[in-house]
Amino acid sequence: MVLHDLSRNNSELSRFVAEIRDINVQKDRLRFRRNLERIGEVMAYEISKTFAYSTKEIQTPLGVSQVYTSDNPIVIATVLRAGLPFHQGFLNFLDKAENAFVSAFRKYKDSVQFEICSEYLASPGLDGKTLIIADPMLATGSSIEMAYNILLTKGTPEHTYIACVIASQPAIDYFAGKFAGDNVSLWVAAIDPELNDHAYIIPGLGDAGDLAFGEKE
């Protein structure tokens, strides 16, 4: 698995990440969702640099222009519900992509222990396609791993991009051992060093789903 850490190069992406972390800015849900969306747009642009391109001829009003366009058949998948604004950012940029949605959530046995559960999947066939799994937070990696395995029931992608806003170092280490091949790559906007006893990323930003859509019971 290849890791792409976009925080290694300074850009306006850093400001968007700073704002979604800021407890004062977080009070504005609209701005929080929009920043997740903008991060998705930036990340989609960066990922698109790795696609396969070929030359096509386009008729203009004054002649013929040779252009390069991507040949990748793309499916953008997200984990409900926190991933929706992030997913929309990818879709804004990769507007011809197909889409997939999967649920993966923590079901707590007590205040600390939990298991990952899933109840929903909607996806096109994935054989030979480029799969992008967009989920804002990569804490333990369990939710995305489950989502990935569930999506594979719809076929085998040619390449899978796992895109996250903030990832924990423990999850990155876990994925490095889990995805040893080169057909999976991990793209992140920031890496945080650790998890707390509840498996939340530290310093992180809190619960992305609650910040985007309101608290749940």
SSE map:
Layout: E1 2-5, H1 13-21, H2 29-48, E2 53-60, E3 63-70, E4 74-80, H3 84-93, E5 98-103, E6 105-108, E7 114-117, E8 121-122, E9 130-134, E10 137-138, H4 142-151, E11 159-168, H5 169-178, E12 184-192, E13 194-195, E14 201-202, H6 208-213
Parallel strand pairs: 1-12, 4-5, 4-9, 9-11, 10-11, 11-12
Antiparallel strand pairs: 2-3, 5-8, 6-7, 13-14
Strand tally, please? 14
Mean pLDDT: 93
Report the C-alpha radius of gyration, rounded: 18 Å
- Looking at the structure, what is the overall shape? globular
Distance between the termini: 37 Å
Q: Note the run of SSEs as H and E.
A: EHHEEEHEEEEEEHEHEEEH
Report the biggest beta sheet as strand number plus sense, adding barrel if it closes: 8 strands, mixed
The number of helical segments is: 6
Q: Share of helix among residues?
A: 25-40%
Strand content: 25-35%
CATH class: Alpha Beta
By CATH, the topology is Rossmann fold
Category from helices, strands and their pairing: alpha/beta
User: What is the number of independent domains?
Assistant: 1
Tell me the CATH architecture.
3-Layer(aba) Sandwich
Low-pLDDT sequence parts: none
Would you write up a description of this structure?
- This protein is an alpha/beta fold and 217 residues long.
- It contains 6 helices and 14 strands.
- Helix 1 runs antiparallel to helix 2 and helix 2 packs across helix 3.
- The strands form 4 sheets. Strands 1, 4, 5, 8, 9, 10, 11 and 12 form an 8-stranded mixed β-sheet that branches. Strands 2-3 form a two-stranded antiparallel ribbon. Strands 6-7 form a two-stranded antiparallel ribbon.
- The chain has one domain (2-213): 3-Layer(aba) Sandwich (Rossmann fold), CATH 3.40.50.
